[in-house]
Amino acid sequence: MDSELPALPKQMPPAHPFDDDKLKEECGIFGVIGLTDAANFVALGLHALQHRGQEAGGIVSHDPEQGFNSVRRFGYVRDNFTSQSLMETLPGPLAIGHVRYSTAGSKGAAIRDVQPFFGEFAIGGAAIAHNGNITNAIALRKELIERGSIFQSGSDSECIIHLMARSLQKRIPERMEDALRRVEGAFSVVAMTRSKLIGVRDPLGVRPLVLGQLGEGWVLSSETCALDIIGARLVREIEPGEMVVITAGGGVESHFPFRRQPSRFCIFEHVYFSRPDSIIGGRSVYETRHQIGVELAREAPVDADLVCPVPDSGTPAAIGYSHESGIPFAMGIIRNQYMGRTFIEPTEQIRNMGVRLKLNVNRALIEGKRVILVDDSVVRGTTSRKIKEMILDAGAAEVHFRIASPPTAWPCFYGVDTPQREKLLAATMSEDEMRDHLQVDSLKFISLDGLYRAVGEAGGRNAKCPQYCDACFSGEYPVAPSDMIEQGFALKAAE
Q: The domain at 284-459 falls in which architecture?
């Protein structure tokens, strides 16, 4: 993640005026070595990762004759990295890229905050792209500035470059190890030198990173769906705490520079962030979301006529709910696929149209029916209320919400945009109070144990040592958010 410092979660500028009620993953990373015109493959990979970051993107490449080159742009990959003349400025067999979502409070972010970041050291240049969040970035930044570092951006990720510059190690991978040992929080990093592609995951493996192969070339990516778009073969996931150093002719060198710890992969990757056609832990994300719907139907049955997803993220869970319950599945809400992020400047009249600009109810299916709406999460609840009103306006007899994640009651400090805690509906209301607030006939969330069962943990959640990071649901942070605590954030009291 790129996060403006201080990084206390604030209300984010919406992707467009009517899409402000979802958690947002804040970036995706991709790297290629050993392929002619590597930047073209990186552009394709970033296009497949666009859902992870839609504000801006950047690519750095290296060519033996022309050295390092970089391009950073605001907007979609398709609007910036498809021009042949631009891509010709990024030659070489080695490149990395990054897509970014707007960060906490960073409306009007500067181009200087767009990754990858590049540093020229005495031993050579290096570029890095970071997915995650450094939870001690404020303290690190203060220390580095006091020692003479001059920051060029407001990003927490830039701390890594400055820490690398101060390392006394003779090789860049070792300098990166030094830097990352000082970092707290969550990080998956793709980096490059003149001849090497480097991938690293933090010891808990909170954020994803996978290794692929295409011919004689190697690929690192946030998700497997980006391997598919370039025809690469998935080799394996990078393990928590692992660093891989890849050379075009020498293959993959792997080691573990950090103290080994039990994995705490972000469980919300299964629920929402990852694309349904990606693979996590050897299992299809679509299959997992389908199973979430199955568990939800077992835990929270209700008499109804139709199961309808809130598109698009609620669709696999709605199908699973329908299969398990025997209630017919129907596309009762249709999404306008051409509703982009940069819609016309919203006048008050247009704002009052609410989600109708993005979603429309299929009245012929809904009228007179008892409808179960399946959505992936409830954050602020504003969009849920608007959708409920649309369903009732279309003549529905009853509206029942079923949510494919537990109540989101705590902010994430590991690379996901969340509002301040008091803005999270589940932080201030019980399930019954949320039902009354949304004015629906019933509201039920999947339990945390049910979610764990759906992702493949048959025994549910291990309360003593959770198998995933689920802090947004449980308030149990696997890495203490030290900067936030320093600024007054109150952790959950021990039970």
A: 3-Layer(aba) Sandwich (3.40)
